[in-house]
What we know:
Elements: E1 3-7, E2 10-12, E3 18-25, E4 34-39, E5 46-51, E6 57-59, E7 67-72, E8 77-82, E9 91-97, E10 112-116
Parallel strand pairs: 2-10
Antiparallel strand pairs: 1-3, 3-8, 4-5, 4-9, 5-6, 7-8, 9-10
Amino acid sequence: QVQLVESGGGLVQPGGSLRLSCAGSGAIFSINFMGWYRQAPGKQRELVASIDGGGFQNYVDSVKGRFTISRDNAKNTVYLQMNSLKPEDTAVYYCNAVINRLQGYWPWGQGTQVTVSA
């Protein structure tokens, strides 16, 4: 069974940075179209960044230029470097193989909370 474990979240001031990690077991990330999703309070979980098997990256407009997704296939891990964080980035962040901008392929992990506040 696939298990996803996200980590690296925390409380950060506006303008700060965080690096999220997602480790997987029971699945091979390198052959999958992987993504980071986030769910803000009262909102749907949605895809914010994705990376395909060839390393091509895509981002929603609200995070372009600030977030960078990457992968380490040897470690079966996906990362999300988040810079210039804004209060509206506050959410629980999840990783998964991408089906579409709302759906992931595997059971969701517990996520990691990111709070941006002064």
